[in-house]
Amino acid sequence: MMDSIYLIISFILAILAILIELYVIYSILLSRFCKYPPAFPTFGTLRKKTLAEAEKILSQSSKNLKVVDLGCGAGGLLLPLAKKYPNHQFVGYDWDWFMVKWAGFRGRKLKNLKIIKQDISTVDVKEFDLLFSFLDTKALEIVHERIYKEISPSAILISPVFALPKTQAIKEIEAQSYGLPLKIYVYSKSRNNL
Ligand SMILES: C[S@@+](CC[C@H](N)C(=O)[O-])C[C@H]1O[C@@H](n2cnc3c(N)ncnc32)[C@H](O)[C@@H]1O
Predict the structure, then answer these.
(1) What is the pLDDT of residues 129-143, one digit of tens each?
(2) 194 in a domain, yes or no?
(3) Residue 182: which of 51, 61, 6, 45 has the closest Cα?
(4) How many independent structural domains does the chain possess?
(5) What are the pLDDT digits (tens) for 19-58?
(6) For the whole model, what pTM was predicted?
(7) Are 7 and 51 contained in the same domain?
(8) Backbone phi and psi for residue 85, each to the nearest 5 degrees, phi listed first
(9) Which 8-state DSSP code applies to residue 126?
């Protein structure tokens, strides 16, 4: 009896290990051999403070805002905000099929949340009031070279960990997490305080 249970558990673990390995291969190929960032969520104090910064903007606004996460992963930033602020609209873009399905499933009951499978280099960002980008490497280049130029003058971009090159942040928030000296960078073309 015990032998059969061990056999079944080993079989399930082996299947899980194969699935994880296949996903790692998929991620490496999708990220063009790590030229683009993988699906890695915000965490700890970094996540709490990023959400708190967004909440300040969302709770103070009298108009309904459009919020986007460029590379939304599993929706770790968008889901709690969409749940708490049903009057604002939330959109997440990611090119990882599994992340899009997972985030979409987690947010299936939220009418103000859309998760779209799309390369962020083709997203029209003019309509958004608040943007998140937890991105580095080539994806940060897209944010720096195109997206930040195209956002509306009143829009706010929150970038956990990664600073835009040669661009002055209006705010830098200390967000040390698990001993790592991290910061959150907040950008706006027209505002100089928040
Ligand atoms: C570091 S994760 C950020 C996850 C989420 N925003 C969060 O803060 O928890 C970066 C995500 O960006 C996605 N990504 C990277 N380059 C992309 C691109 N060019 N177009 C769309 N998604 C991209 C990855 O698939 C990954 O899920």
Answers:
(1) 999 999 999 999 999
(2) no
(3) 45
(4) 2
(5) 999 999 999 999 999 999 999 999 999 999 999 999 999 9
(6) 0.94
(7) no
(8) -125, 75
(9) T
